[in-house]
Design brief:
By secondary structure, the chain is of the alpha/beta class. Helix 3 runs parallel beside helix 4 and helix 3 runs parallel beside helix 11. The longest helix is centred in the C-terminal third of the chain and has 16 residues. It binds phosphoenolpyruvate (PEP) and manganese (II) ion (MN).
Length: 338
């Protein structure tokens, strides 16, 4: 960190900052300039907490040189990580993995039929929510453990690994016992206690970007998981909230090539939750693959008109087959660096 002092800072104020740096166990390095003094903080292994400096008089600005994440960065780990979920390998530059299934497990039959159709069309991982983070409390909240059982059964039957959301720490053991990958939803991206526990669960994790999260916050959230010793983390861009109201969210596709430079963790894209409209899912899934996404997650329902959750953005089995066909063209059209 670099501490820039105000040009009017007194010698006493500078001395106080130097002492504060020393108290944290770091070495202060004063850098006298023409108009002001800056103080470099040396010897830190990670992000320096701003708190001890916030109220000190005479400071103009605190500039972080170190990011709040390290383990997930390319600087620390230059080669691409490959996350294995059952038989599916997710990583930059590999064949994109397609994750498909219903928003919510509604019945044994619904998830079984969906699993069969997405498997036949070429999906690599089956998704389905048993515990649902619904915006309103009066809407269908998911079947819970019963839904988890149906999802696991459907996955086994067709031979697909499963990913499902875990919302609370007390659900973790039972979800981790059957899921091949644990999903952390957008609303829980900064539930730090949950992130730490998920990091200890020994299963791959799919971390969805919070709807107002900056990329720095997104990566710092992933760092919580990796810090617990679990480097099997997949990042999922699912759209962010902006001033735009025409679509459910704003799909921030630029994050795909950007994150490829910054992190070794694979990034996938969820166009269903980003757009909220079935007719836009296929074009944006293709766009995601062209810019290098390591995978795509889409919602599929045997009869979207009757879906209890997110029907308007769900593809039907024929739509999913069409998506898989069009994605083959997108893979061939991938830009060389992606
Ligand atoms: C989901 O994928 O089931 C979901 C709830 O998405 P998000 O957390 O991105 O809203
Ligand atoms: Mn959904």
């Amino acid at each position: 960190m670099l501490i820039v002092m105000e040009h009017s800072a007194t010698q006493q104020q500078i001395e106080t900052v130097l002492q504060a740096v020393k108290r944290l166990g770091f070495a202060p390095q004063p850098i006298p300039g023409q108009n002001r003094v800056a103080i470099g903080v040396l010897g830190n292994q990670s992000y320096v907490d701003e708190e001890p400096f916030r109220d000190l008089p005479g400071i103009q600005e605190l500039i972080h040189v170190t990011k709040p994440y390290k383990l997930v960065s390319r600087d620390f780990h230059p080669s691409d990580s490959v996350v294995t979920v059952g038989g599916a390998r997710v990583g930059w530059g590999l064949e994109p993995v397609i994750i498909a299934g219903p928003c919510t497990v509604e019945s044994r039959e619904q998830v079984r039929v969906t699993a069969q159709s997405v498997k036949t069309a070429g999906a690599g991982i089956l998704r389905g929510g048993a515990f649902k983070p619904r915006t309103g409390p009066h809407t269908f909240q998911g079947l819970g453990y019963e839904g988890l059982e149906y999802l696991a059964e459907a996955g086994r039957e067709v031979g697909l690994p499963i990913v499902t959301e875990v919302m609370r720490i007390d659900q973790l053991d039972r979800v981790a016992a059957v899921a091949d990958c644990l999903q952390i939803g957008a609303r829980n991206m900064q539930n730090f206690d949950l992130l730490k526990e998920v990091g200890r669960a020994g299963k791959p994790v799919m971390l969805k970007r919070g709807m107002s999260a900056t990329l720095e916050e997104f990566l710092a959230a992933a760092e919580y998981i990796v810090l617990e010793g679990n480097a099997n983390v997949i990042l999922c861009e699912r759209g962010i909230r902006t001033f735009e109201r025409a679509l459910r969210n704003t799909l921030d596709l630029g994050v795909v090539p950007y994150l490829r430079q910054v992190t070794h963790l694979p990034v996938i894209v969820d166009p269903s939750h980003a757009l909220g409209r079935r007719d836009l899912v296929i074009p944006m899934a293709k766009a995601a693959v062209v810019v290098g996404a390591a995978g795509v997650m889409v919602e599929v329902h045997p009869n979207p008109a009757e879906a209890l959750c997110d029907g308007p953005q769900s593809l039907d089995p024929a739509g999913f087959t069409q998506l898989m066909r069009e994605l083959r063209v997108a893979v061939a059209a991938r830009i060389p660096s992606a």
